[in-house]
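User: I've been going back and forth on whether these two constructs are worth ordering. Before I decide, could you fold them both?

Assistant: Sure. I'll take them in the order you sent them. The first construct and its structure tokens:
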Amino acid sequence: MSPRRIRPGALEPDPELWAALDDGRRLTEILEDFYTRVYADPQLSPLFEDTSQEWIRRKQYSFLRSKFTGEDIYFGYRPRNAHHAMVISDALFDHRAELMRSCLRDAGLPLHLMERWMEYEEVFRKQIVKSAPVPLKIGGVEQPLEGYEAMVVEVGSLCDGCEQPLDEGTPAQFHVRTGKLYCEACMARS
């Protein structure tokens, strides 16, 4: 039985690769190693300064598992939207790919499976590489890249400017591209 296509242009699920990853256990180890290296890398770490390693590892695990198995389990943004605000050159994309390849090699993944993994990564190059941020698209509608919107805090949080508490019901402003939340005092100072 041949693997089914997820959608036109997508790579097919790869049961052999998934089996070599011990049904995900080795994928977890590879991603832990990879993101430890990413967060220590001077070229890549700035892209993740507001994202925890645990969060990004879990998202990437879910995304890759959905690609490798064909399971409909990923509920995050597609690569274009997930990287919409990041300026990523072909050289930086290649640097990241070499870092991943190194992790796969260190994990002992057979060469033919390493190459198939890297094919999955390469499919998304056109969606990720760009010279300037692009608008996030939600429901096919482009969202603004810059500016602030007023809101009322529904769940207690912290101001990303002064780190003071923002209680439920507090007026605040959030940046439409970064999602950072600011209290009225910080907005008045800026």
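The second construct, handled the same way:
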Amino acid sequence: MTASAAIDHHESARPALIDVFRECAADYAWFYRNGWLEKADAVDCAQRHGELWGVANLYGQDAVQAEMAAAFTSAEPDDMSTGCAAQILRRWEMADPRDRWKWTGEAPPPEIVLALMPPPYCTPQSTADAFWHVVSLRDQARFKAFLADHPKDAPFLLKLMEG
């Protein structure tokens, strides 16, 4: 065997750089799945390794992204191992048609929309009492200032005065 053939044989025996990167991405996905890293940090580290090792230059960024996507697709954390209450809540809400919309981007059910709408504005009794006190003072400037300070209440208060 010539020296050149020995080198070629030795090079072919080494795993391809993309295979090494695939294992690296899988390791970072494992770190995420087991609660050692946040997902964004794990993905950023895998990406950085792809850049430092030249994987992105050699195979292209799309290949790096594809390997990371494959590694992280099944990397959702195990609720019992991480104790992640947010993940448990997400699973519960995804299983309930009344709450599923919070995660899927679907429109919420009509009864939820109605429940989420703020109640109509109602003038507080204390504002009505203060209004009657200002009226009793018979000071037009104060009366106008009070109504200007209570724009939401002014229509209701003026109706009180009429009736």
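Notes on the second construct follow. Residues 125-162 form one domain. The mean pLDDT is 84.
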